[in-house]
Amino acid sequence: MKLTKTLPVVVALIALPTLALAQEADVTPPNEEIGYIFTTFMFLVTGFLVMWMGAGFSMLEAGLVRSKNVAMQSLKNVSLFAIAAIMYYLIGYNLMYPGDGWTITNVLGAFSPAVMEPVGGSPDTDLTYASVGSDFFFQLMFCATTASIVSGTLAERIKLWPFLIFTVVLTGLIYPIQASWKWGGGFLDANYGFLDFAGSTVVHSVGGWAALAGALILGPRIGKYKDGKTVPMPGSNLTLATLGTFILWLGWFGFNGGSQLYMDTAGNVADISRIFANTNTAAAGGAIAALILTQLLYKKPDITMVLNGALAGLVSITAEPLTPGLGAATLIGAVGGVLVVLAVPFLDKLKIDDVVGAIPVHLVCGIWGTIAVVLTNSDATLGGQLISIAIVGIFTFVVSAVVWLILKATMGIRVPEEDEINGLDMAELGMEAYPEFTKG
Amino acid sequence: MKLTKTLPVVVALIALPTLALAQEADVTPPNEEIGYIFTTFMFLVTGFLVMWMGAGFSMLEAGLVRSKNVAMQSLKNVSLFAIAAIMYYLIGYNLMYPGDGWTITNVLGAFSPAVMEPVGGSPDTDLTYASVGSDFFFQLMFCATTASIVSGTLAERIKLWPFLIFTVVLTGLIYPIQASWKWGGGFLDANYGFLDFAGSTVVHSVGGWAALAGALILGPRIGKYKDGKTVPMPGSNLTLATLGTFILWLGWFGFNGGSQLYMDTAGNVADISRIFANTNTAAAGGAIAALILTQLLYKKPDITMVLNGALAGLVSITAEPLTPGLGAATLIGAVGGVLVVLAVPFLDKLKIDDVVGAIPVHLVCGIWGTIAVVLTNSDATLGGQLISIAIVGIFTFVVSAVVWLILKATMGIRVPEEDEINGLDMAELGMEAYPEFTKG
Amino acid sequence: MKLTKTLPVVVALIALPTLALAQEADVTPPNEEIGYIFTTFMFLVTGFLVMWMGAGFSMLEAGLVRSKNVAMQSLKNVSLFAIAAIMYYLIGYNLMYPGDGWTITNVLGAFSPAVMEPVGGSPDTDLTYASVGSDFFFQLMFCATTASIVSGTLAERIKLWPFLIFTVVLTGLIYPIQASWKWGGGFLDANYGFLDFAGSTVVHSVGGWAALAGALILGPRIGKYKDGKTVPMPGSNLTLATLGTFILWLGWFGFNGGSQLYMDTAGNVADISRIFANTNTAAAGGAIAALILTQLLYKKPDITMVLNGALAGLVSITAEPLTPGLGAATLIGAVGGVLVVLAVPFLDKLKIDDVVGAIPVHLVCGIWGTIAVVLTNSDATLGGQLISIAIVGIFTFVVSAVVWLILKATMGIRVPEEDEINGLDMAELGMEAYPEFTKG
Prior knowledge:
440 residues; Ammonium transporter fold
């Protein structure tokens, strides 16, 4: 690893100035086919990292629920990932990219399964971007991530099948429709100048809104709020929660890095590098902020807050991981960490029971991250960001609420009281996650 | 992640037609050295993904055995991986690729350790493929995977050292010899037109046959079959099993994707993308099929079946992950999921005790996946596939059985009854995996 | 995966000869920009693998401490990773590469935060290496790894905040200063011909020395050494320890492979491939050596020794993963595995309490690996290696000891006896890692 670096040591930007953006170098790739291979392979690598986030959510949630619900929570996470894969193939992908111009005709025509390019490539393939298969693979993982967010909030009391049906609607319709408004060339992109690089709003707040609607309609767990007090229900396995956080941290490099969408030039790969470094430092900022703040507030650090603080930092930098310098990225993440520590008890005050803290992490910090774009990217306007946050939020919350209410009215969404007390594992699955270990 | 996709929305193929294959574009790479770098790096990335599957098997198996055998199961998984690394280096690699033409002379001459190209590259290196080191690294991981399959079936009752000696034979001789028949240019490839893209037969069914031979000779666990009934022996840690499944799912992108063997042209990288997408959707199909089927059969979903269903989907698509469309791949995986749900109780009826369900997943679905090649790839013939499955199966089963019988006759392969009841951890290792936790 | 390999089967080198090194092919990359993209992307991929090692250390340590300290150990691992990220950004990176020529003026001038290249790339960027962001990202992970090593040794008795303050000094000052002597073009590199490819000394022994200084000053855990005997304190979760080992094994491909620093030519990517293969086989050698040796010494294999044996093999090959052949690499790793098995009881004889065995693995094998460079790389001299090991060791040990002593004198570094007995989780965090599981 010997390398004498001769780069000039320059003065750094730690604060949060609006960076003077260098003009995007007007470079054409050295060779179209090579650029195509680079970008396609980049999507595969960043795509498998985002896929890995599915495991991260599963471990995080399994660690933060009580042991009597762990097997069910694991089953939900595997199943929702599989459902997302199938629904995004059947409808979502084409619905999200409704072709040349975002019109009603195009959208209606877009209800069709995804199709990849033929085997062996076609001689007349357009080589300016990436292979369809790689783009589909990458985009699918974002859809799956959105669904993963919901499962944690509603844990320990929701019935399996209504949850899975909601996931069908979320991944097949809700996510792709609103995502198309920004990433499919729709009106948020075209008319409001909405900037959301990798999805603080389009992915994370959407998952958060859907979870919030569910939490309100489902109600809190039995015994969670008693005599005006919040009863702590500690997670059963903090090493799993730690593992889940590390997995998500790792996967996020793919989430944000791949969203550069091109790796065909030196400028693009340098941008992806900035994004990796910023993503990492934002997570660090969030974790440290939560560590210090919980020490100050409660005289003891809180590990679940530190884990959620890291995730909060990651969500916060997701809307704009490219333009901030390392210092700005750290601070954006740190604000996220602070927000989570404040939002968790605030939600409890409202008696909104979010088992794993997904709403503070993904919704609150998703909003913060989307607003923070204006701090470092002069192309964004506060108005455009706020109105886009609102439109996406209202759409997702209302549609989700309608779906939850229909499910509640038809098949019911909550397990019987007795099943909730005994745990979903025995009641709904008939097996336990840790059958040989006595509960304390 | 803004991108207005302007690809025409075309009609999809959901059913299972034999796709009219596009002619492989007759492209030479834009530059030989660049193609060499691309392919070599691709092998390193996909190779480390397959290496990661070793961790996946370890977690899956540790989660599915009872807590008294968990440390031993972990030790076996680490050790077998290390043994595979050394045996494949010492003999396996050269034996699998016995040089120019598969003749007895070549095969006998192939008993020699693997050697990588010199440091710094050689000026006269052939740049049409990839570096020897990367090819060795990638192929080694397939050999290790084969060994991982066996350990799960025989868990909880086999002695450590005979198991490891079997692993020496499997990774040094059995795997590479039969693999050379297909991938080393041997007679299955040359004379039978056998198609097995990434090893439904060559890797997965081989692991399954070796496991089956072992299971028959070793016999079931004490108390597993009593009064004509199968006694459930639930796994001790379903979150570990879930984690293992996610790891395997992730690693499989490397397993199938890297088996394209070239990433030097747009056509090849587009093919690898198709393979990633198909691999993912096949796993999803298998998981969903098992979820629905267990709900219908048993009125409750079975999480271990869903996990094995995902793996079944992955094994099923492995013989041909390239030619199917997304719909066909989903259905091929779904059939795998159904087969697993049916095969597990069927094996129990035969009193073949497979602790983790490796035989249903890897052998049954390995066969199914190999047959399914004919559904989407017109180069495959049902006859060629069936005869190749049979030849590989008979060879592996017979040789494995002979080795198991020799081990049984000489050193014994089964732990004493008392040790089995007390658990292998205390008996063979003198330490427990979870020493501080009371058994229920 | 069909491929008829026609490479000539050549005679292998199993022993440990000094390989006649092929002259580094004097190749210029086919195109500067393409080489830049290759190397930059390589840093991102290998960098995220090294980041993943942070999770590996966390799992390994959480598995090897007793359950009453698991949450705290997890918190320490997440926090130290975050601290490393911030300190390396604020000071470490520029301090490690103090510009053109390693002079006091340059070093003093180097106290400044890291800065990445502008967004979109600059038209006048130097394209002969890689993007600054990717280099920063990759190098940061080495700094974080160094800090991860310390936390394991000092587990179960050190206070959280002093440990974190030490981490600040280690990652901001100690690590980058000594690393600059070799990798920043300092005197060990320039005057002593010191060779340490990926950091057996610069990373691993440094972590080990810092841990040793801490262990001596902190003292052993209560009850660890009683009446002249070592009391075993078995880890609470061996599957987590196994998982951690697999994660570290995987991450090490990035650690060693990325240290090639260039992937712009066929020769460089072929070298990276050799490194991957050698790294893997060294780990295998270490694991097998520990397996056999513990069986011979204790009549039972010891799984924690086998896990540490694999890690020992990895540390041992880190100083020179390129020049050995596969056989030599296996043996270098195997010697590491033997050293660990012998060093663990030796440390106990000295009453140095190293909870996870980090000193045997990272310090002892770090020294061995650095010496072993002379066996296969004729550019290294035994004298140059030994003096460099000594200089780095003395510097790190002395400075670390001073910091530990200051911390001890000011805020105290050890938890009260009662807290240690009850466990750090309840005492310092007020929460347990596994609250629902009764301790046996």
